[in-house]
Amino acid sequence: MLQSLLIALGALLAAVLLYSNVSIPWQKWVNTCRRIMGGSRHQKPPVPAPSTSASGKDSAEPVAELSRTATAFANFDLGQLEPIPYRPFLSQGHYSIGLKKVVKEDWIQMDQLYPSRVKDRKRNLELYPEKCHAINNEEGARAISELFENIVKHLPARFPTMFQQEATGSTFRNLVTGESYELEQIRTEPRLMLKFLSENVEEDFYLMCPDQKGVYVQQGFLSCFSNGFLAPTKLGLSMRDIHGPVPGLQENIGKSIDRFMGSMRGGSMFQRMGWSLQFAGSDLLRTGGNNFYPDPDQTFSDLSEPQDLDQCYLRVERQTLTKLPETGAIVFGIHHYVTSLEQVRKEGHGKKLAEEIQSMPEKLGYYKRRPFWQRDINAFLTEA
Known about the structure:
By secondary structure, the chain is of the alpha+beta class. It is 36% helix and 16% strand.
């Protein structure tokens, strides 16, 4: 029926054009009709998804974003490269996966804060080694090694004015910090690989490795800028168990997260955004945790605390998900951004942020400690 209708329309259009001296790209018209009818001789056959073993490793090697060499980003002044002003609260709901594909050029991000941030990371790892990095087992060690090798290749290719690797491949140089690294020595110990990553990129990494049943379990991490995640307590846990304490997450998007992770192909890269508010300074490592677990009979009318508004910030996490093709591990990379609430208000987003704070479901608001700060913060954000 549809095919007959299209033929009739085509004949009518041809007659009209014949007497109107109007030209038309006939091949485009034909191809459009073919697409509507469900096929085209130029259409490529669908590519079947690779089969996956119990270990999570793809049995058929896909063409992957991670395996591609990134285009060099060389003509820039790091000191003038401002942080990207991500504002996910403008468009993203409280329970939203919000995933989109990432090209390799955007995997690791750099800006003018890089020199001070890597100094902070190095110091945090020295002061809190057990809180900032760990390897749970051999699966975690192999995933860390694969991540390390990919970062070592990527940094000089993407940022050749910041990183160099000798032709022999033995020495890696960070031209910003002045540090040099003997790679063969680092490769002997997974903790040395994590230390290298902490001193050369701003991203934290959490490595989720598939077990024999295909369930992804955290088997290693580098967490120099933890926002109260308390990664050491999450080792050996699945995604479902890790996020169990977050009110409403499992009910709203838990199954979608599981399905998505199970469908990722080796070498694929995605990103999503998360946000929260941070108080008492802009330092990124929060060892005590920022979340709140009220007692069942606890009331909140008297919990509001006065806030130093000059020390209140919007904290945004840019979260990347990358599936390593060899080990099958999924790496969560997190780049942290903090922006003063004064700056958010200057941008004209204060009222919108206040609306999003107010619209948090009750239990999620408790978890985010909203009863402690909402009075002063809402007044500040909505002030004309």
